[in-house]
Design brief:
Blueprint lengths: L2 E6 L4 H10 L1 H4 L3 E4 L1 H10 L4 E3 L7 H10 L5 E5 L9 H14 L3 E2 L2 H13 L4 H8 L8
Parallel strand pairs: 1-2, 1-4, 2-3, 4-5
Helix pairs in contact: 1-3, 4-5
């Protein structure tokens, strides 16, 4: 079982709902998280149970970032809208930064999300083992 988070900017929410609906069978059985409205919309269209945090601008991105910092997430699908300024851009940057620091895979568009979810579906999502293999000597993955 993996722990997966969903985040989508306003103009990407329909795309996220369609994507998660298409791969509902893959996400079933995993522990799922999301920011507020994104999770609400996904749950309205699927039978998935999602732990919802606050809306992104109200702190939801930071709450998901806290899970990353505590090594409690395995994958984030974050459909960003690169053509729209976000009032909480520092929170978004902080979330992406902590994912890079902790080595957490983040899909920021449908193409990357599709690749990661297909790997998950195949049982070919062993990135934590690979991270240990390529970590420099003396450093530990937490």
């Amino acid at each position: 079982m993996f722990q997966i988070a969903f985040v989508a900017h306003d103009r990407k929410k329909d795309e996220m709902v369609n994507f998660v609906t298409a791969y509902e069978h893959v996400f079933h059985g995993h522990k799922l998280y999301s920011t507020g409205t994104t999770g609400q919309r996904i749950m309205a269209q699927t039978k998935l149970d999602i732990h919802r945090f606050m809306s992104g601008p109200l702190g939801g991105d930071q709450q998901i970032g806290a899970l990353v910092a505590q090594n409690e997430l395995d994958l984030i699908i974050f459909l960003r809208d690169p053509l729209m300024a976000q009032p909480h851009e520092p929170d978004i940057t902080a979330l992406l930064r902590i994912c890079d620091v902790q080595g957490i895979p983040v899909a920021t568009n449908i193409a990357t999300a599709e690749i990661l979810v297909k790997a998950l579906d195949r049982g070919d999502f062993a990135w934590r083992e690979l991270a240990h293999k390529y970590k420099p000597a003396g450093e530990e993955l937490k």
